[in-house]
Hints:
The structure is a single chain. This protein has helices spanning 13-23, 32-35, 59-72, 124-132, 150-156, 163-166, 201-205, 239-251, 264-274, 296-312, 324-332, 337-340, 359-372, 400-416, 435-438, 441-454, and strands spanning 28-29, 52-54, 76-79, 96-99, 106-110, 115-119, 136-137, 173-180, 185-187, 213-221, 223-224, 228-236, 258-263, 285-293, 319-321, 347-353, 376-382, 387-393. The strands form 4 sheets. A 7-stranded antiparallel sheet has the order 15-12-14-13-17-18-16, with helices on both faces. The protein has a 5-stranded antiparallel sheet with strand order 5-6-10-8-9. Strands 1-2-4-3 form a 4-stranded mixed sheet. α8 (239-251) runs antiparallel to α13 (359-372). The protein is of the alpha+beta class. It is globular, with a radius of gyration of 22 Å. It binds flavin-adenine dinucleotide. Flavin-adenine dinucleotide is lined by residues 41-42, 77-85, 88-89, 100, 120, 142-144, 148-149, 151-153, 155-156, 158-160, 209-210, 214-215, 338-339, 424-425, 461, 464.
Amino acid sequence: VEELSGQSRAMSAPEREEIASIVGDAHLLISPGDLAPYARDAVEGLESFPSAVARPRTTVEVSRLLAFCNQRGIPVTPQAGRTGLSGGAVPLFGGLGLSLERMDTILEVDTRNLVAVVEAGVLTQRLHEAVGEHGLRYPPDPSSRGSCTIGGNVAENAGGPHSARYGVTGRWVLGLEAVLASGEVIVTGGKTRKDVAGYDLTALLVGSEGTLAVVTKAWLRLVHEPASVAVIVAPFPTLEQAADAVVALHSQGLVPAACEFVDRASLEVSARRKGISVPFPEAEARLIVEFDGGDDAEVERDVTRAGEIALEGGALDVLLATDPPRRRALWELRSGIGEAVRDLGPSAELDLAVPRTALAQLVRGVRRIAEEAGLRAVSFGHAADGNVHVHLYREGSAAPDLFQRTTTALYAHAVSLGGTVTGEHGVGVTSRAHLHLQRSPAYLAVLRAIKEALDPRGILNPGKLLPESPAPLR
Ligand SMILES: Cc1cc2nc3c(=O)[nH]c(=O)nc-3n(C[C@H](O)[C@H](O)[C@H](O)COP(=O)(O)OP(=O)(O)OC[C@H]3O[C@@H](n4cnc5c(N)ncnc54)[C@H](O)[C@@H]3O)c2cc1C
């Protein structure tokens, strides 16, 4: 951000008036107090104010806003729940924050086609509850679901614990309505399940982090709620044993609905915050594994086998829960870790992912690299997907460049294991400078060509995803 300071685009009074004429005075925010929440997302220490925030209610309003900003060269940062962990919703260049929060209608739950049609600003949890009333499920479940939106999930291709079996957001998106930088509106799909007419623009927009278009509506696949669910928690003496058990479960044909990994340090901080005590506090790592299925017998067979595999792999015990209150109690160990680890001190967060078989190597390497730098690291995450969230911290203050050097080494470590610099949080600002570790120059050139084709003036979310600082607006 420092590197970009001084480039913030202010908006003139006539420009603000034009925007107010589109969204209405009440939905154009300009006072510093009103703008403050729109200057940040969930990345610690990253703040940059927009010159104004517009809160449109309709696709037509979004279209008129973008057409105007494109004509004037005003940077536009799409914003939704602002829970992002890669800085994507932070308006690095000032200009307009375009908040989708008022576009929050669930337009339809089609129980026969098993499709929900929603506006982009619908909170993910609200959709879960709405389809749940019909005995249906929208599986993507980021831990932030109470405050993040479908549009933000689409833009980041968000995952969650149940990605283990159900995959990430993109797998559930049948079509999108989106507004291009020019203000033109495109629809990329709909209720039809198979559709190969042309390039897959739905897939292109999923994960595009607000840099190619503003998503206004989504058609989402649903499934029936499973009839039976059970959860086991297995504490392991060592991290390696837990990681090996994850591989063993999958290679023996089991498909957990969720398979989460929590290391000792992250569990301790979460338990302390919640005031709960956990059994086997000496365990270096534990797995929380959920199975679901069409009937109790099927699920019982799977949890029994999973429990055996865990014990054969050295688990100290296996705790089982089938009824909802007890299941919730076991999940309690995992939920809230993301927030709790922030109590630990000045920090940096990474979202690394590697092939499942490299999980132990990844976490071991993270500890070694952190220790060598005089920092500490806690790790937790979606073990089935090899996706580990690393919280790097130091008790007391630390020079920011120490974090920078260490995070670069950690990204390089993940890539050397065949992994990625971001599993689910997106490139945004935080991983932008490290994308070249993973992607070839030719790959990056394709990204730039796509950006140039869809947003030739570079108004959409400048400073995000692409590795280089953006050229000044053209
Ligand atoms: C406690 C906590 C737990 C989390 N757990 C998870 C998790 O389990 N899995 C996971 O994947 N992530 C997780 N996250 C990260 C975050 O919640 C997700 O990335 C989420 O998808 C962001 O949604 P949002 O609505 O808050 O979007 P924002 O943060 O507002 O925006 C995110 C990005 O999307 C763009 N954007 C937003 N809306 C639109 C739109 N309509 N059209 C185009 N672009 C748009 C923005 O410009 C920005 O680049 C967590 C975050 C926190 C704080």
